[in-house]
Fold this sequence. Notes:
Oligomer: single chain
Largest sheet: none
Distance between the termini: 52 Å
Low-confidence stretches: 1-5, 192-202, 208-215
Structural class: mainly alpha
CATH architecture: Up-down Bundle
Order of helices and strands: HHHHHHHHHHHHHHHHHHHH
Number of domains: 1
CATH superfamily: MFS general substrate transporter like domains
Mean pLDDT: 84
Strand content: under 5%
Helix content: over 70%
Amino acid sequence: MNKTKSRFGWTLRYTLINMSYFAVFCGIHAYASVFLQSKGFTNTFIGLCLTVANLLSVIIQPVIAGLIDKPGPLSNRNVSIISTLSLLVGSVLLYVIKNSALIIFIIYALIYMIQMAYQPLIVAMNFEYTEAGCPINFGLSRGLGSAGFAIFSAIIGGFVEKDGTDVLLISDAVILVMSLILLITFIKPRDVSVASESNDNTDPMINTDPVGSKGNEVAHNNPVEFAKLYPKFILLLIGIVCFFFAHNMINDFLIQIIRPLGGNEKLMGYAIFLAALLELPTMAFINVLLKKTTCERLLVFCGIMFFIKTLIITLTGNMVGVFISQACQMGAYAVLIPVSAYYVNQVLQKLDRVKGQAFINSAITLGGVFSGIICGKLLDIHGPKFMLVTGCIVTFAGLIITYIAVKPVKKNA
């Protein structure tokens, strides 16, 4: 009974951290175009702002992860607390500042960057706490995080259409205060031996043994050394960049995509709600899927679904097709996020795992960099249809690259 309570307690607290994180993620990321358009930004300048934010995030994520991988006061939780506090300050400043386009550009780029930068730390926190004896159902928690994203989107879309984009900042600030309290109180037990009594290793994918040599492991913080040690992992990262070029293209410019189809902010909120809500069942039962198949096969499968999702929204002429495309999220994003986290934990050495999570998130973010640079301009020059066709081509390339990256190497007998 005590073990059940302990498992439920840690999962519940980690779930609430995920739900609050992704609710704010929705406000900052999914509604970026809506917010910036309301401040007078063109599609090109929206793309530029998101490009700057994503590029800064790509640079800073491996640096932060390298510092956390080293012994010292910086931990996944501590940096997450600092990041959450920074987002709160940024949201308040954006609410106060009304008319300075340059300051809005800078602050929004920074909070967008920070929100992306500490996402891998939330993921790594799960494995850190689980290995310390705190049983957490990662798939369920991450899936309910998406539910938080979905609920926020469904509610906020109507309010934004009615009351304007300042409601986004107020909502974000309230949730960030809650998130800050959750993180501050989420303290790992110091007595690992006591905590371990409640750990019955219910998650078969948790890898507590280092990959490779034991007892003499070192962190590979030099990117060149890291790439030499894990060449196929680097190839996988390139595939993920391609997937998230199209994924970010759809998310960042969804309002521009659906307006020619008769859509508005309210319908956009429903479309985002559908996609995020359908992530929950996949993520919640990811452990069941992983018992029946491998991370490698699931990574290829999600690549296929990313392509199908992009193809459907490209070909559709109405909002029904948009909703069908969004429903493909349950086989695309919903599979990639937890499976890539487990894959990192399987194939990377222990002292490289936080870095590995950061590199996955950097690849996701880099997809946003290229999307921001290219898609905003494509929208202004050629319109949404041409942009979507480009997304299809890039996603298909990512599928081929991912297949090569995870395909087992045949050894000669």
